[in-house]
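Q: How do we represent a protein-ligand complex in a form that can be generated cell by cell?
A: Start from the inputs.
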Amino acid sequence: MRDLSAETRIGLEALGLRIGRNGGTLLDVPRLVFDGPGPTLILGPNGAGKSLLLRCLHGLIKPDAGQVRQDGAPLGPAQKARQAMVFQQPVLLRRSVAGNLDFVLRRRGMVRATRKDRIAALLAEGGLSDKARQSARSLSGGEAQRLAILRALATEPDILFLDEPTSALDPAATLAIERMVLRASAQGVRIVMVSHDIGQARRLAADAAMMQGGRVVEHGPASEVLETPKSEAARRYLAGGLIL
Ligand SMILES: Nc1ncnc2c1ncn2[C@@H]1O[C@H](COP(=O)(O)OP(=O)(O)OP(=O)(O)O)[C@@H](O)[C@H]1O
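Then emit the C-alpha cells for the protein with adenosine-5'-triphosphate bound:
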C-alpha cells in the first residue's frame, strides 16, 4: 500500500450544493472544503442530510445545483474511480472472504500471484486471516464490516467515505474498525465519515462538520467543534438535546 504524507492528501470541495424536494430544501451547502491532514467526521441529528452529502460527494446522487471538486477537478469518472464508500450495512458478494477481495483485485488487473500476496496482507490487516475460506455472508457484523473496509482499501482509494460504519457494532468491534480507519488515514487516504458517536468523533476526527436541516452549521478543527462549539445546534447536539 502506498504511504503518502498528509501534504499529498487529495482535497475535496463542495460548491453550491443544493437538493430540493417538494418545495423544501434537503441539502444546501454553499462551500465545504476538506483539505486537512486527518479524518473528517460529519455529525448531526437524524435527517440532517449527512448521508445525502456523502452520496453527493461520492457522485451517487446528482445535486440539483452545485458541484464537487476533487483535487481541483470536477467529479468525473476518473475522480470517482479514486474514491470508495462503505455503508452502514456492508454489501458483500456471495463468495468467500478471500473471494470478495480477489474479485476487486482482479478487476483492477492484478495478476494472480500478486493478488495472492495482496489478499494475505489485507486479511492480516483486518484480522481475518483465519476466515479466508469462510463464506462472507456468514461473518459476524464486525467481521463483515472489516471485510467491507478491506475491499474498499483494496482499490487503493484517495478518498474513503464511511457512512455510520460502526452504528450496529459493539465497542470492541467498533474499536477494531477505528484502528483500520486511523491506519488508512495515516497512509494518506482521505477519510470522510458520518457518525452519531461523539466519543468516536473525539477519538478519530481531525476536523468535524456539524449538520442540521440540510446545512453545515459548523466545520472546523475537531477540538473546537466538539469541545467549544460556536453554533447553538452543535452545542445542543453534543449535550444530547433535542434538535428539530
Ligand atoms: N431520495 C430522497 N427523496 C426524498 N427525500 C429524501 C431522499 N433521500 C433523503 N431524503 C430526505 O433527506 C433528509 C436527509 O436525509 P439523510 O439520509 O441525508 O439524513 P441523515 O443525516 O443521514 O440521517 P440519519 O442520521 O438518520 O441517517 C431526510 O429528511 C430524508 O427523508
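The first strand starts at residue 12 and ends at 21. The beta strands are 12-21, 24-34, 40-43, 65-70, 73-74, 83-86, 159-163, 190-194, 207-212, 215-221.
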